[in-house]
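User: ATP-dependent DNA helicase RecG. Structure?
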Amino acid sequence: MTTLDDPLRAVLGDRTATVLADALDLHTVGDLLRHYPRRYATRGELTDLDSLVEGEQVTIVAEVASTRTRPLRGRRGSVLEVTVTDGTDRIDLTFFGTRVGYHARQLRSGQRGLFAGRVSTYRNRRQLAHPDYLLLGSGNGDGTTDSPTEQARSFATELIPVYPATAKLASWRIAQCVEIVLRQLDDIPDPLPEHVRASEGLPGLRDALYQIHRPAEQADVATARQRLKWEEALVLQVALAQRRLQAATVTAHARATVPDGLLARFDQALPFTLTAAQHRAGDTIATDLSATVPMHRLLQGDVGSGKTVVALRAMLQVVDAGGQAVLLAPTEVLAQQHHRALTQLLGPLARAGQLDAADRATRLGLLTGSQSAAERRREMVAAASGESGIVVGTHALLEDEVTFADLGLVVVDEQHRFGVEQRAALRTKAGDNRPHMLVMTATPIPRTVAMTVYGDLDTVTLDDVPEGRAPVATHVVPTLEKPHFLERTYARMREEVAQQRQVYIVCPRIGGDETPAEAAPADGSTGSAADTDGDPSQNSAGQEPHRATPQGVVDLADELAEGPLSGLRLAVLHGRLPAEEKDATMRRFAAGEIDVLVATTVIEVGVDVPTASVMAIMDADRFGVSQLHQLRGRVGRSTLPGLCLLVTAAATGTPARDRLDAVARTTNGFQLSRVDLLQRREGDVLGAAQSGRRSSLRLLTLVEDEDLITTARQVADRIVTADPHLETYPSLAAAVTAIQADPEYLEKT
Ligand code: ADP
Ligand code: MG
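Assistant: Predicted structure:
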């Protein structure tokens, strides 16, 4: 009587269970059966050995070409070198010790097998040292593997499951465990309701698990995957539907527009006309704010689409209605910049208490971690008394001691920097009523992702940009193929500076005296992700082969000041600098007192200096696609044509270079976020896979399974509307509870 909740220990014994727990974090029968094969090898197929990447843990299908044994120098035992081939390329397997004779007898030339190990290089030849292996098919029949059943299987079936394996546990050892567990499995409860299975023509859970682990043919795999994806999608959508239902029970104060308020006067004084999209979004938000249902809205718009003005208009509407609004920025640099920008946009409207204030003006507050105690106290009093109608700030706003007289609206700039707790902390500051919530993001998100990840947010999109914007021309500068392009890049920068324009140079590291291991220091001033200057290559973790240390800000700035950019006014900006210094540098750059700013990704989001026209991104392959697009958005912010140069040592045809070419080809952020999503594991989007943790989405891909997710959402809504607590769906309810227990489930909602 085995069920999915049973510990593996009970079925496989202590030793095996311990290995599975340690190596793969698999503890229950369900964990193991949800560890799906990554792909299926066929006995006829050979792995393309040329494609192996140094340092990767691989499972390959190859044929033994030759073997050679020689004594170990100065020690007992010998070395067995086995060369295996895919018909074209070769790789060596090496075994050391006193028992290599055993392997020599197994691995005879002509034998085919699965070989698992880590790819390394020794004397310019690639090898797997001490690989684990499973021989296939040529009838040696002398018990080379532990399980005769497994041997028989691999003869009998064409499809050999290949599992995500680790150094400690080869794929076929996982397969053996799965085999044992499957044989003992009882009739297990199925989270997918009967009526859904019937209408979608999907098999039951037990059948699907058999088919995905032990397919007789490819069609079995497809059927099983479809069914398992459906389950993932439905469980997630039911959880989100329940949450939407719950959210509908709390109320907010309605903040309807008033005639002749600050908003009306702001609109009259605005130095430009709003774009059509800004109008549309503004109307939608104004309607939301006028209701007693708390607004939960995502405002998405490509970089430069003018989200700040839309948010500011919403904030003014709330102030007009007697409430307060906060604008929460992910970094100190951005908070300061927003404060400056709003001060300028509002003019006399934000000078309450000052001589030149407009009638019924409000006060614009600022709260950041780097303020002096006295400043901070003054700001806190102004917020608590209601004197500050709008308060801009960083995470410092979230602290318990910060209170408001009547908080009506929370605007979050750049959602991806904020987690669940931060949002919850802000909500509590509005007392019994929920504040309305507006989340701005410049990373356009495909519809499915918005629906899945931001399941309880409504979306409104700015799909145009203010007129007269020149598009940013983007070029890849390949330092290996065309080294002289780099000189031209610097010459171009000098020309721009000669015309009173400014230049950004972005590097992946801070550099200076830091060791490479310290490349991602936390920024003490805000504790925010954007200021950490974290190694951006984590965006494409696992795809990049080992490479030399990338450019650092400090070193490059020194080099340029003495070399190609000597005579220009250079400054550096990175997360290790004190907050005042960062702010002062940004100010001077914005004022045109600095020509070239050499920076880390601290400038990634939102920094707005219209006279900056050129950006060079060094080691651009170290950055993710969306991140490059964000960075590029820092130039071309006025009518000046922008230029973005992606400097890279990545060779043509490599995945890294393909990504850069994609960024150079299009300025459509929406398309690029799809490229990004396709390249990253979906789990990353949900915040889990990065750390190697299991995500509740294993098979479902947000981009490719759009239709399925859409249908699942409709089905989920129907189920939850009819039976909010899932009383008639106990197995589904259990599955929903299980994903809710995962602290990282839907990080971002
Ligand atoms: P983002 O959406 O990237 O946050 P911002 O809100 O920073 O963009 O706006 C970019 C720049 O465009 C700012 O300088 C802003 O004042 C300006 N801007 C916004 N809306 C308009 C408009 N309708 N016409 C002209 N300029 C605008
Ligand atoms: Mg912005």
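The pocket of adenosine-5'-diphosphate (ligand 1) is lined by residues 272, 274-275, 278, 301, 303-309, 442, 466, 606, 608, 637 (CB under 6 Å). The two ends are 39 Å apart (CA to CA).
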